[in-house]
Amino acid sequence: MQVWHLTPETPRTLRHLNAPADTLSADERETRLSTFFAADWHQQIYPYPRYRALFEQRVGGDAFTVQDLRDLQMWSNLAWFGVEFRTAEVVLPDGSIALVKRFVEKGEGFTDVDITAMVVEQYKILRNILPLCRQLQESR
Length: 140
Fold this sequence. Notes:
Blueprint: H1 12-18, H2 26-35, H3 41-45, H4 49-59, H5 66-78, H6 83-87, E1 90-91, E2 97-98, H7 101-106, H8 112-127, H9 129-138
Antiparallel strand pairs: 1-2
Helix pairs in contact: 5-8
């Protein structure tokens, strides 16, 4: 299941976010490896054992398996969720609940289904940005 329809016009970052690891070309694998560590090492990578291990694997020049690429795909996104989302359920303005804590707790061995579920959580949050801004404006 994909959250959006991938087309040639889809930005490269989004194509990499949702492309199954076992379908990547050599160039796509390298792009993923060269961009999915774009995070603050001390705040977003090192605190998470699997993300740190993947980072060290990349620095060491070691090969990545398909599973490594899936885990990297997940961690490169989880690291950008706010701490509230990584540690607890967050009730959003529309009443839905966003939660990625289960993925942080799982830590590794992610599946394509897990990655799609994480993207669904991202979209829930994105859909609530404007309603949250309205709530904040009205509370002034």
